[in-house]
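Intended use. Records like the one below are meant for learning the mapping from a protein sequence to its folded structure. Do not use them to infer anything beyond what is encoded.
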Amino acid sequence: MKKIRYIFMAAVTLIGFAACSEKALDEVNKDVNHAQDAEARFTFADVATSTAFTVVGGDFNTYFGVAVEHWGGVHNQLYKADHRDGEWISSSCFNNAWGGIYNTIRNARILVAKTEEGSGSVDAGNTALNGASKVLLVYNSAVLTDLFGDVPYSQACDYYSYPTPGIDKQEDIYKDLNKLLGEAISDLTGAGANGAGSYDFIYGGSSAKWLKFAYGLRARLALHTLFRAGDKNAVYNQILSDISKSFVSSDDDAQFSLYDGDNQLSPLGTFQYSREAIAASKSLAEKYAERNDPRGNMIYCTNYWVDYCSHIPMDSEDFDPVPNGEGIEAQEYYTEDCYLWTLNAPTILLSYSELQFIKAEILARQGKDAEAKEAALEAIAAAFDITNINIESAQYSWGFGYEGDYLTYEDAEAYFNEVVAPLSGDALLAEIMVQKYLSFHGANGGSVEAYNDIRRLKAEKKDYIKLANPSPKFPLRAGYGSSDTTTNPNVQAAFGDGSYVFTENVWWAGGSR
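Structure written out for the chain above:
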């Protein structure tokens, strides 16, 4: 009996030692030097920053700025893009931007998951932050599908479960984006501060402003799909209703403005400073000149390296913009615009000016010319203010030589009365679209939305915004990035040789993919 007791005690002791050993090994394997989780506000700051710098102000804006002739390409990849050769159909063209936007979407999804009720995170149940995070998730996901069409979406960013995610249809993605926006609006309605505080680089924690942003973003996305709408009048009314709940002035603009022009530089100025790959567009300058637009005689300059951004009036013999699609490859040769040398101009995700242009377009489509003109005047005046901000930034950054007065509301009103007020019907709608296109020319990341406008108008056979590039190969979309065309057979099969970027519209512009 005594022997049995000793054996039992020995067995218990061994089990105890084993248990202790396993526990000790668990502790040894723990990484105690690095955080395993972070408060959502820190991730929120990262997502806001990458949305502004990488997604809105990065390669997408630069390449499509050349495609819509906001600029002319004069060096390397941008020269090739301007001449529409093999650059657009290469999977390397947008590879960095492709990876960057998916990384931003992944972090936004993490944010949404962490702030959901019952997530177990320290931020679980933070409804206001959850709603703002959904707005950023929708924003980035919309840019992704707007530019690439059908993309990995529902299975994307879950690399363990779906190492080679399948491709979702754009129509289905848009349905999900609208669902998420509806949830965001519900989360943000009546909510207090979102808790991100100073880590909310866009609105400083204001849920009320994120709610306005959500409504404005929903209006933009509804506009994109207008061509596909069965009941256009219902969509018109939805858009106008959402805008009425959105921005009431430029103070509400969703913008990232932490650039100091010294250590933190805005994306377009950073690109030009390092690459010198784009210059002033001739077709754009002609649009300014045709309208006697005061912005045209304010913004053009010499290259910084040539003459310290000396101001050039459009009637000067030194004014020499890039002939779109026909220029030579030469840096420091063509006239530039001061926007290219702004190092602290804000990146604008969505503006009061854009929403007023959308309102003006919808009212003009409804035949409400007088109301459309009221909105157009507001839009132009707000756009003039953005021009002032950009010129001021260029002067601060590089000593841009413009010495005239800044634009005022009275200047906007006089311009409007000369150019827009006399028009009606289809002519009014056409001019509203051109004015919106001009407003997107700047250092603030507006070229992608100008590109979206041009594509949806093309779907309607409305050639309101005239482009001068003689090449018939207008890029209808961006090509998938090489990081997936070489590793994901689903994306590889969809990409093929890349030539589809010139032939196939995205779904909302009348295509099938």
